[in-house]
Amino acid sequence: MAAAALFSASAAGIADSGTLATPMYLRGGFNGWGLDHPLAYKGNGVYEAEVLASPGYHGFKVGSKDWSAEWVIDPSASVTVSAGTSYKMQAKAGPEDYLLIKKTSIWRFSVDASDPAAPLLRVTQTGMPPASTDDPHQGHALSVAIKYGSDTVRFSTPDTGAILRSYTQSTTMPLRDPGPPSTTYREAADRPTVRSGSLAFDALFALALDEMKQNAVAQIKDGNYNGANAIDCDCFETGEKWHYVWTRDLSYAADLGLAMLDPERVRNSLDFKLSGYRPGIARVPQVAGSADGLQIIQDTGSGGSWPVSTDRVAWVLGAEAALNHLPPAQRARFAARALEALVNTLENDRIAAFDAASGLYMGEQSFLDWRDQSYAAWIVGDLASLASSKALSTNVLHYKALTLAASLAHDSGDLARSAKYAGWAAALKRSINQRLWLEDAGMYSSLTAPHFDGAPTHKFDWLGQALAIVTGVADGERARRILASYPHGPMGAPVIYPQQQGMPVYHNRAIWPFVTAYGLKAASLHANVSVADAAYDTLMRGAALNLSNMENLEWISGQPLLLDEQQPALIGPVINSKRQLWSVGGYLGMVIGNVFGVGVTGSGMEVRPFITAKLRREVFGAASAITLDNLSVRGKRITVRIALPDATNETGYYPLKTITLNGAATAQSIAWDQLPDNATIDIALGPLQQGDQRIRRVDAASCAEGPDVFGPREPSIAKEATAATLRIDANGNGAGTVYNVYRDGKLVAAGVAAGEWRDRAPPAAACYAIEAQFSVSGNRSHHSVPRCTGVAVEVPAMVDGVAQPHVKDWGKPGERLRFGAVRIAQAGEYGAQVRYHNGANQINLGISGGVKWLVLKDASGRIAAQGVVQLPHARTGKTGVLSTPLRTRLKPGLYALEMSDFYNMSYLQSNSTFSAAGGAEGPSNKFDVYGARLLHLK
Question: Which residues form the Mannosylglycerate hydrolase MGH1-like glycoside hydrolase domain (predicted)?
Fold first, then answer.
């Protein structure tokens, strides 16, 4: 948008009456990129917004409500602003600018727009928030203090004997967001309560329930949808800073705990994340499923969303949990809708994202969707390579989706479909265990290298490992090895390992409570006492110190923000929110599902508490029993009481000894028809058992990038690689680093030095990749960009029979594009790729990733290969970048390529109000085409 177009006619000059034709807002990390800081007109063309901001390295932009207009300093690069300096802004989209704030303070952002073509930004500190001297605990009947390092958390209640207590909680730790260092919350008659002898434990459970209640809303909104106006929905919003429903956040939160406590709202939220096609969308023959296309929504994200990202199937975790908790009539209706959505999702994922050669699904790691945080540095310039990699977490989620679909199909009487999905699930489980298990590490690889390499990398994530355990993908022995092998820092398990150099805290160098909660579930299943104790500590400490269940924490210090004034670009967590939905769900699940052991299946309730000696000794202290009261499950009111053994200084856990239901002995599994409307379950624990106490612990300074906890930078292969000789570029890795060589995804040389390496038995065509490895710790890098030595034949695009070097804005529904004929001289395996540029949105945003159907035909017109190719959003290149490949074996002869439509997330009705490409103006599956190539692979 031109700068002047932002202004009304009266505002083109400097008249005091001038106003912006398009209201603009200060949006950044300090306000969740929201709309609560509009630029207010102050006269003479000057607009201002003031924000109370906490310490941090805050990204920000000046943008309109729907992001149709943006002001940034430099559209090509981020700028760190200094207080009191004026910066010329441009009315163009671009990367966010940054402000480093060292103490919680008030900042004024002034924009002088008296010259609309050259607005000037000036940022100044204007004050400090007033300090409070009041004691929030004064006059309370009971007050307890808990030390966490140098910080103290205090809990108090005015009436210890009240049936429903009020709690006040304060902390000495600096909070992530501006606000008082204390909070007060109350138990409610319609929510469960805990009495444990520990005021802190009882209070933190009440805090999580209170935050669940705050996240339960009647309307949701996001600046990118519905013109940033509210949408009616009795749903769960995602957190204090995130007022929308996001598929994966909701689904993990529901599975961890929310579905038990509010299944109807979970169902509503899950239903909001389903959508059919927009009216008038012509369905192409290759697309599978029902005519309306009802399916799970993949939210906006990497490269333009699905199928670069394919973890929309996380939805099944929430759906299964909701189905287990809904009363029969509601369950039946939702089960039918869930099955339809699952069938459409699974069938199209099979076409667009399944790699038959490996038996695995392609797509980005679940939730780890900041590419530079958990992928090779070069991947941001080649998102098609991200799209073709295979991730542990996403494949385990597909396994879970297939098993649920098989179960629902069986219940509906569709036995053929049930058998089909059960067979797919069994095959996928085998492929995960065959392709991703790394015996030397005792864990699964989190992700494979991309196409033309495909080797499992020595990169690990806690969510993927835990999901493999809790879903049963990992058998008992592998599950125990994973629990013993995954590294833990002093504050708990980081979400990825090893950490990435030169990256701020977010997914990198971070603890995410919801992931910790899954780790706890996995540890409890296999009685790993040490891992469980670490998880209990992480979850309780994080909620206590922060007065909330935060989105994430720095992994060594456990802080919600770690300042690094010497390297401000590494400060983080970059984004953090209070009452993050899946953190809330994880905490509630910890108490109800792990401590008290209450779980629900389709057939009834299971009781499997996991109380360790440390938890009993340090948390429950002198108490002889703990009680969970007023838990409502399927309309039944349940009380769970656990009699505690005497505390001991030993380590281990207390196995379940006996269970009684309203005084009568019962089994751990209680069928629904055996559970009365008012049930009291009494549990006695047996003698202390040692359990599995293995845990891998690592330690490091918070800002140090040592080889014990970080991986090396990925190396590169010089472009002049031949079939016999590679030149390995260390990419800044120093002494103590060696290099491993992969050929076509297989390790062919280990521990070699940088520089020249010769393949002593080079095939005629092959693809090579290199990884770096620290000699001492064994930590490894991501793989380099693959270098292929086979012949590559470039093929022009054809329009009306004439070769075109550049076809602009191609890809409207119904369009077909042909490429010139190409002669294959040598039989072998080939990869066909389209050379393109997709600038519909930024590489981390949107729903407009290119998803097309590519067909390779021989001279007689017979189809030699066909399938989906992906053309994600890409950074600008003169001749474009390459799509995902269509791989096949070819005989010598003449071949031709043709490309036609498939679909992407912009074809769904739910995205009809999206503000950017693929939204209100209609679906977007278009890009520029620069030709194609056929590459001889082997």
Answer: 244-541
